[in-house]
Amino acid sequence: MLGLQFATGLALDYNQAVKRLPVKPRLRFAPSPTGRLHVGNLRTALFNYLIAKKHGGKFILRIEDTDRARSKRMYEEEIEAGLAILDLFWDEGPGVGGPHESYFQSQRNDLYENAVQRLLEGGHAYRCFCSPKRIGDLKLKQRKNRRPPRYDRKCLSIPVKEAKERADAGEPHVIRFRLPDCGEVVVHDGLRGDIKVAVSAMEDFIIRKTNGDFTFDLPNVVDDAAMKISLVVRGEEHITNTARHLLLREALDLGDVPYLHLPLILDRNRRKLSKRAGAVTLREFVEMGILPRAMRNALAFLGWHPGGEREIFTLPELLEEFSIERISRSPAIFDPERLLYFHREHLRLTTYDRCKPRFLHHLSGLNAEGVTALKHEDLAKIIFDEIVESGAYFSLASRMFAFLDSRFKPTRAARDWDAHLLAEFAALWEHVPAKRIAGKPQAAKKRVSDFLKLSGEPKARNLLHPLRLALTSEEKGVSIYLVLALLLPKIVAQRIHTALGA
């Protein structure tokens, strides 16, 4: 990153952020409702929650919706629902209230406007009338000359009175923060120690747009101060933003606050994971049927480790074990296979009753009426147990048990099938009492074994493989004995006859 370096000769102190925390710290998660919640957002929310609760403090949710064009109500709802799914309930924020309402930045414009006026009056900001075309042409020329694209401060030379009169007359303009002319900003980071950001690596950044909307920086700083945030925990990609924010805090005389920048999250190819690059979102995880506690556990290990061999933690156990000094500075790797591992491990520790509403949601498209003798609840429990055994996502349940759907169409017979053997089996199985085998794969297995002995067929595969294809249209899947135990005997016979073309 241009202009950014770690201070040399510094003894890193992982506890400095904790030492500066008050007895009951206030931490916040401040997402922008301009897109779906993704892994990076969720990791930031979880770490803020764990640090706040670990130290007896408050976890605050603030919606940074100053971008009116891109902010959407559906994303606000997804943020709130997503945190609730992960049991990360906020102490102050939307729907809860608190002493610093409103927790929507779009409803706090008076505070930001007041801050802008203070910056203008103090000479820390100025009105810029340059058109987007001029700025674009300027930066294109700079790039062609292999210079970093920076605003050239053309409007800084306009007298304050003249700039105000032009603005009052309605001339389009933005307001820029005036950076120091030279030097560097030192970011005191809770993980990395001091990080130096050269002023020359930045430009006089916009704090209010032409349409009156405020950019990310100013509201973020003003609200952190107004809401008495004790520690700002966010991603490493915000380090340059933090340098700007420190300058804003100083210009507005808002005091200091410690910062802690979490390591980048990379994909398996060690590329940055981001929503613009197609990172997997919480919505997709929910649709896949991943257990929320597994998702939470996986997020905790994106930059943190307890130090021992143990990896499976409930939320109370995470709160007990979590500590800032165990957060790594190295990039974290998000691997879907690791997420599946956490899902499988937590799946083994849960029960049907605890997962029932979420699990049944994934079975809602499966219509087993007239296909099985089992009641819906009994069937759901059997399917759940099979999912636990296989460690699959809940979303796979309907696919794994698609043969139970009344709309199922069986496969036609292959040439190498023993049609006579299958027809004999169908004739026998059709008369098996449904209640004797319903939900009992071992009972079904014994009857198949008895049939094979009577038929004189030495190879069970000669029956079981074509039987699986006739009943499920799949080469692999759940036990064929479970298939036989779930389907009504008459349905088994019908499918065999259909497959044989009878």
Tell me the layout of helices and strands.
Layout: E1 4-6, H1 16-19, E2 26-29, H2 39-54, E3 58-61, H3 73-85, H4 109-121, E4 125-128, H5 132-144, H6 160-168, E5 174-177, E6 184-189, E7 193-198, E8 206-208, H7 217-226, E9 232-235, H8 239-251, E10 259-262, E11 265-266, H9 282-288, H10 292-300, H11 315-321, E12 332-333, H12 336-348, H13 352-363, H14 376-390, H15 397-400, H16 419-429, H17 434-437, H18 441-455, H19 461-472, H20 480-486, H21 489-500
Parallel strand pairs: 2-3, 9-10, 11-12
Antiparallel strand pairs: 1-7, 4-5, 5-8, 6-7
Verbal overview:
- The chain has 502 residues and is mainly α.
- It has two domains: 4-263, 3-Layer(aba) Sandwich (Rossmann fold); 360-502, no CATH class.
- 44% of the residues lie in helices and 9% in strands.
- The chain is built from 21 helices and twelve strands.
- It has helices at 16-19, 39-54, 73-85, 109-121, 132-144, 160-168, 217-226, 239-251, 282-288, 292-300, 315-321, 336-348, 352-363, 376-390, 397-400, 419-429, 434-437, 441-455, 461-472, 480-486, 489-500; strands at 4-6, 26-29, 58-61, 125-128, 174-177, 184-189, 193-198, 206-208, 232-235, 259-262, 265-266, 332-333.
- The chain has a three-stranded antiparallel beta sheet, with helices on one face. A three-stranded antiparallel beta sheet has the order 4-5-8. It has a two-stranded parallel sheet with strand order 2-3.
- Helix 8 (239-251) links the parallel strand 9 (232-235) and strand 10.
- Helix 7 (217-226) crosses helix 8 (239-251), helix 13 (352-363) packs across helix 14 (376-390) and helix 18 packs across helix 20.
- It is elongated, with a radius of gyration of 31 Å.
- 35% of the residues are buried.
- The model is unreliable at 1-14 (pLDDT under 50).
